[in-house]
Amino acid sequence: MYSLDDTIAAISTPIGQGGIGIVRMSGDEALPIATRIFVPQRPWQGEPASHYLHYGHIVDPETENVVDEVLLSHMKAPRTYTRQDIVEINAHGGIVPLREILSLCLDGGARMAREGEFTLRAFLNGRIDLTQAEAVADIIRARTEASLRVAVNQLNGSLASEVKEIREKLMHALAYLEAVIDFPEEDIPPQDVEGPLEEAARDLEALLEEAKRGIIYRQGIHVAIVGRPNVGKSSLLNTLLRTDRAIVTPIPGTTRDTLEETVDLDGIPFVLVDTAGIDETDNVIEQQGIERSRTAVQQADMALLVVDGSEQVTEADRQVAALCVDKPSIVVVNKEDLPIVCRYRDILPDAPHITISALRRTGISELEELVVDTVLSGRIVTGETPVASNPRHRALFRRALESVNHAQEAARRGLPADFLTIDISEAVDALGRVTGETASEELLESIFSDFCIGK
Length: 455
Ligand code: GDP
Description:
Elements: E1 8-11, E2 20-26, H1 30-37, E3 38-40, E4 52-59, E5 66-75, E6 86-92, H2 95-107, E7 111-112, H3 117-124, H4 130-141, H5 145-155, H6 158-182, H7 194-219, E8 221-226, H8 233-241, E9 259-265, E10 268-274, H9 284-299, E11 302-308, H10 315-324, E12 329-334, E13 353-355, H11 364-376, H12 391-412, H13 417-435, H14 441-448
Parallel strand pairs: 1-7, 8-10, 8-11, 11-12, 12-13
Antiparallel strand pairs: 1-2, 2-6, 3-4, 4-5, 5-6, 9-10
This protein binds guanosine-5'-diphosphate.
């Protein structure tokens, strides 16, 4: 499915108008194809210098029309991103010249690259491991500086080397146990197995703990902003975003759909979800909005329950509050600029309460602090940037830890070596999947299909 032999091409910069745009090719034919469509200012004598920029024009070989004025870079294998020959054509950023250059490359024999295929080649050719390939996607998608640091950390291979170290420890123990099983009559000097197992378990626990924090930076925290109509949810969203994204009107129930926006609070990306008010109503559209709110709360990591301090608590407030009982929540008593008639102390009494005015923007920074504290709840934010941040990795660490714990148990109970080797092999396999040493084609497919074309 993933052939490495053909030459792939793609527009590697975002579609749209920009100062420059890049068409990239990777493979043995990259340079021959480029040579047929590129006319250098100073004619090349034989093969052009590698890792240099060459100035010239792209010319359609059939019509001899000049397509664009470009800078072409030729990077000869193996010191390249994919470890294959790469040609990059820096053209003007409009979509028309880029498409035309790409189609000339395809006419010349290149194949359109699939999502993430350049990075996939880097992985398959051993230049990077799977965690580094995933880091490339994370870097592109990083939403805050802290998320970017986590991704860059992963790109430099620190996670992979930690994982490999644990894996090697386990493989060493496994090799010894297998030797004991396979050659019972040989005099194999006894080796400590429980020690390495214990170390592996400890390291995996640390990675799992770190991943908890890393995943927050990578994926962000989903915050559902809920409350009955007209309490000021959309106004609060706008205040937190400092833009006018949601439509604010004095008519109840105007927020018919959910809106999502990301804000950076202390480096953590918070994805704010504004929901329609939850209220008993006959209106069909409103009813759909309510269902969305219910779902939004269920899917969120935490909830901001907005109530109107200038009005008495209503049955609708209680109904919305009921949705939040199992979520980390904050009760936001809004409209403090008006005379406050209710403090809502008996609404979610265990959750922190804060009084603000979304309209006048008072109490907002205190609310932001409270949101961050609620998420981290004692977890340390400062200190080292976590290297583990990917839920896929976390699931595999868990599996590896379970297997190691089983093996430890078997060792403690003095069970035969076979029992241990099964569990240890499973742990070794799970860790191999993290770095890609034992990756299946489906796994690669699912990871790389998440990339954009040209990466
Ligand atoms: P939602 O239905 O909960 O999203 O409420 P909106 O954000 O649409 O606000 C409903 C009405 O309350 C609008 O007229 C807002 O201007 C008003 N409002 C929102 N926040 C405040 C506030 O802090 N003080 C006052 N006085 N009015 C507010």
